[in-house]
Amino acid sequence: MLQEAISYLRGSDDVWKTSIIGGVLLLFGFLLIPLFLAWGYIVEVVDRTARGDDEVPVFEDWGQLTVDGAKAVAIAIVYSFVPAVIGVVLIGSIVLGSGETIGSLGAAGLAFTGLLTVGLLLAAAYAFPAAVAHFAAERRFGASFDVETLRPILWNRTYATRWLLSVGIVLAGSIVTAALNELPMIGLLLGSIVGFYALVAAFYVIGQTWAELHPLPTTERGGELSSDRPAV
Fold this sequence. Notes:
This protein is mainly α. It is 73% helix and 2% strand. It has eight helices and two strands; from the N terminus they run ααααααααββ. The chain has a two-stranded antiparallel sheet. Helix 3 packs across helix 4, helix 3 packs parallel to helix 8 and helix 5 crosses helix 6.
């Protein structure tokens, strides 16, 4: 699976064009619209791979990519919002309740709250790729919060293993990106390109995993069936 994920984008005739566009979009992601476009492409990658379509998407239909990417970013915000709010409320309560001096009990409470918040954020990060996969399949924002569909996926050992693989790919890409960022002038762009490539590879893994655990109905692309998986 790792080799397939790394080779996925490389198998496209437009690999350099797609990688450069994606890298530039991530580089200017602070402007939001480029970030939405990059994540819209990721949503398309997940959708195609989950349906057994091996054709690597290209950057086209920018309007749809923007909409899908904005929804994917919104999904990430919602999933991280609850752990963040819980952490802020608990830490604030401990600090206010301790007065000017935080004793050993308050320090222990802060440590526990910090660990709890980190744990909740990790749980959100664990669920987020599956949520994106379901959204990509249904193209409904609410699908990313469909507990009945997501629960068995999240408890599946295959998903857990593939999630760790996808995280490893992103972390490896981040290390290379950090090293490239040290280069003058072109380092930031090269790092962004590597980061985008790693993100695509990671969500290729998620798409393939979704295809195994939650087969999707056939769809038509260019007048031909992209998969013969039965609808569930």
